Amino acid sequence: MVLGDEIRLFSGRASSRLGQNITEYLGIHLGSIEVKSFSDMEVYVKINENVRGKDIFLIQSTCPPVNENLMELLIMIDAFQRASARRITAVIPYYGYARQDRKDEPRVPITAKLVANLITVAGADRVLTVDLHAGQIQGFFDIKVDHLFAAPIFIDYFKEKHFDDLVVLSPDVGGVRRARAYARRLNASLAIVDKRRPMANEAHVLHIVGEVKGKHILIVDDMIDTGGTMLAAMGVLEERGAGEIYASCSHPVLSRGACEKIEKSSLKELVVTDSIPLEENKKVSKIRVLSVASLLGEAIRRIHENRSVSSLFV
Question: Model-level pTM?
Answer without folding.
Answer: 0.94
